[in-house]
Structure formats: C-alpha cells, structure tokens
Amino acid sequence: MLYYLFEYLDKTLDVPGTGVFQYITFRSALALMLSLLLSTIYGKRIIRFLQRQQVGETVRELGLAGQNEKAGTPTMGGLIIIFATLVPVMLFAKLHNIYIVLLIVTTLWMGTIGFIDDYIKIFKKDKEGLKGIFKVFGQVGLGLIVGTVLYFSPAVTVRTDTAKSDIFKVPTETVITPAPIEEKSTATTIPFFKNNEFDYAELLAWTGEGYEKWAWLIFIPVVIFIITAVSNGANLTDGIDGLAAGTSAISVLALGIFTFVSGNIIFSNYLNIMYIPNSGEMTVFIAAFVGSLIGFLWYNSYPASVFMGDTGSLTIGGIIAVLAIAVRKEMLIPLLCGIFLVENLSVVLQVSYFKYTKKRFGEGRRIFLMSPLHHHYQKKGYHESKIVTRFWIVAIMLAILSIVTLKLR
C-alpha cells in the first residue's frame, strides 16, 4: 500500500526522494527489516496468546532423548511466519502484480489447511489431525489455481531471446534490431545443460499440429504434483527445533537470487537465462518471507519456545513450490530442497521396505532406526542441535550448487 502512496507522491506531486520506492532492492530491504521486527517483537506476544489458549504440543512416545520435555510447548507458531510475511508484503509490494497475488493466495490457502489440522489436533484432541485425503484435496486445489493462472493469465509471459533486445545494441542507420516479444509459454529450465530450456508442450508433439494449445494437460498436473510434494516434504522436515525454518530460509534465499535475475532483463541477458517480466517483484515477498523465518528461529531454535505446526510447515512448502514454478526453476527443487527430498524419501523407503519384508518374511524390517531421517540420527545418539546445524550446512551447500547452475552448463 505504501508503494502506491509513494508512487503518487513521486509522479503526481513530485516530492523529492519518493522515487526510491520504485526500486525493488529498496522495498525488499524494508520488507526484510520489518518482517524481522514483527516476528521477533510480536512473536513473543503471539506465543503468550497461544499459551493462554493452552495451545500446547502433544508429544508422542517415540523413545527420543529430550522428547518428553517438549510436551506443552505452544504450537501453531506458523501464525508468526504468516503475519510477519504478509504485513510487509501488503505495505511494500505491488499488490496488482500477478505473482504477488498468487503468493498471497498460497500463503493464506496453505496456512488455513495447516491451521485446521493443528486445531483438530489440539482442541479436538485428535492426534491424527485433518485426514490426509482432505490435506491432499487442499493441495490439489491450490495446484489447480496456481497452474491455471500461470497458464492462462495474459500477465504471465516470458522472453527467451533477450540477447536480441535493442537495449544491448548500438543503433546504426543500417541495422534495426527489434525488441524481443513477450509470449505465453510453458517453457522451463533444465539445470546443468547448455541448451537448458524445455517446453512441457513438446511432450504432446506426437499428437500432431496444434499440440501447443493442449499443453495445460501436462503443465497443470505437474504444478499440482510439485506443490503437493514440496508441502509434504516441508511438513515431514518439521520434526526438531529449528530444522524446517532454517533449511527453508536458505532455500528461499537462493530462490530470491533466481527471482531477481530472472526479473531483470540486463542480468537475464548477461546470464543467458529466461527473462520473466514482472517476476522480480517476488523478491519483495521473498525478503519478507526470509525475514519472518529468521525471526521465527529466534523462538524456535533449541530449546524451542514455540513450534510452527502444520500451520507453518505446509505454508512454507507451498510458498517454496509456487516460487520455484513461477520463476521456471522447478526442476531444481530436488537439488535446492534436497533436505525435504531425503526426508520424504526416508519415510517412503522405510514404510515400503517394512511392508515388503513383513509380507515376505512375516516380520517387518527397517532401513533406518526411525524415519523421517532426522529421527534416525536422534536414535543414533546425536543431539538435535548438532543434527540441525549439520542439515543447515548441507542446505547451504545445495543452495550454492543451485545458484551455480546459472552459469554451470
């Protein structure tokens, strides 16, 4: 909202200094600082409110060191993340930007699903929470909305030929270089390859002429799958103090770099990557989101004063998925969000192997001492703060490797 106020002061009243609000970097810095302040200052008040409402975590008997001491710790702390993200976004972002609208919808949508799940666990005393099928329906619903908007909205376009732009040509009397055309496309980026653009529509080329108009049959299901997988991965990663918030902040910060360069025609030309008009505005949202995650860590680091609950973990996963899809870097998710991936895989492998061995040998066997993977290391005797720190280090390495793909092909 402040963006529009300062735009009016700059363009209509010509007030000196107000034009600085036109810069994404300036507004991102303000969003980051405000979200940090909101999450650290008002986070304590939200925690006290949750304590008064007796919103305490019910701890299962898992046989893990220090687990019983966490009983009664306030949960639903994801409300801190949502609050500290949306307030700066509302103040400093262009609210008419299609990507900002999608991210706000994603935050509220996934936050609501997570809130309902936590509410059932706490107030209805049902440890299972919201039934899995309803969670999936919610994730699929968001995927349908995001996929449909990204595919059909005229505001979502790309330029893949930025090197031909007249911005980078010296005009002469004999050479005229037309500016590149913004176009609708389902193209995405394949990491580590030189000619690294892939169009989902090509999967339908075998159907004959005009196959491009049916690309939504591929694109929208892919979006649904990614949102469902990443949000569940974030949910499984939220198991020990500071793990989900810390690893997520690292991944989102890397996505912020991708977003900034993809939304800037000069950087996208230099790096020879896809230019996505208007996507740079997501940098403001990312700055606010990173600030809220870091501020949340103030209270969630060991020993945690509050847990994010599904209210936070599902929201985090949904936002990361939508950011990656919007900036056409969804194929980097297995690398960038490698922690989410291995946590997910550890559960899938553990359950599958247990069922297989029980059917074949009459007795279920396990690959890990316990799943998700972070609990395996707890069972081995590692302190959870050591596990979290090491997972953060791995997440940093994966984020750096992901960023390197901008030039490593």
UniProtKB/TrEMBL annotation:
It comes from the Bacteria. Keywords: Cell cycle, Cell division, Cell membrane, Cell shape, Cell wall biogenesis/degradation, Magnesium, Membrane, Metal-binding, Peptidoglycan synthesis, Transferase, Transmembrane, Transmembrane helix. Pfam families: Glycos_transf_4, MraY_sig1. The keyword Metal-binding applies. Its EC number is 2.7.8.13. It catalyses: UDP-N-acetyl-alpha-D-muramoyl-L-alanyl-gamma-D-glutamyl-meso-2,6-diaminopimeloyl-D-alanyl-D-alanine + di-trans,octa-cis-undecaprenyl phosphate = di-trans,octa-cis-undecaprenyl diphospho-N-acetyl-alpha-D-muramoyl-L-alanyl-D-glutamyl-meso-2,6-diaminopimeloyl-D-alanyl-D-alanine + UMP. PROSITE patterns: MRAY_1, MRAY_2. Pathway: Cell wall biogenesis; peptidoglycan biosynthesis. One of its GO terms (biological process) is cell division. GO terms for molecular function: metal ion binding; phospho-N-acetylmuramoyl-pentapeptide-transferase activity; UDP-N-acetylmuramoyl-L-alanyl-D-glutamyl-meso-2,6-diaminopimelyl-D-alanyl-D-alanine:undecaprenyl-phosphate transferase activity. Mg(2+) binds at residues 235, 310. CDD domains: GT_MraY (cd06852). Signal peptide: none annotated. It is a multi-pass membrane protein. Its cofactor is Mg(2+). It is found in: Cell membrane; Membrane. The chain crosses the membrane at residues 20-42, 76-93, 99-120, 132-152, 214-231, 243-267, 282-299, 306-327, 333-356, 387-406. One of its GO terms (cellular component) is plasma membrane. HAMAP family: MraY. Belongs to the glycosyltransferase 4 family. MraY subfamily. NCBIfam families: mraY. Catalyzes the initial step of the lipid cycle reactions in the biosynthesis of the cell wall peptidoglycan: transfers peptidoglycan precursor phospho-MurNAc-pentapeptide from UDP-MurNAc-pentapeptide onto the lipid carrier undecaprenyl phosphate, yielding undecaprenyl-pyrophosphoryl-MurNAc-pentapeptide, known as lipid I. This is Phospho-N-acetylmuramoyl-pentapeptide-transferase.
